[in-house]
Write the structure tokens for this entry.
Amino acid sequence: QVHLVESGGGLVHPGDSLTLSCKASGTISSSNIMGWYRQAPGKQRELVATIGSIGGPNYADSVKGRFSISRDNAKNTVTLRMNSLKPEDTAAYYCNYRNYRGMWYDYWGQGTQVTVSS
């Protein structure tokens, strides 16, 4: 089992920046993918950015150039730096951890709300 705890959401104005953090605990595999997904009211959950324990990051087209994901493997944390926030970035943001053990296993955080409004 893997437990994820997120922090850093809040209410900001358009153009502001915000940083989300997520810490994983429990049975952590040395090979895993961590990332962020978001879900706006009435919409499906969508990928924001992911980063593997090895390899580079992956971003949704809608956040490329504005968001940056990084991780600290020693601390089992993943961070999402969000710049130039837009009202359409408003959503609940969920931390995700996944690894492969014969099949893909996904774990989710409880979610943190990001609201971008003037």
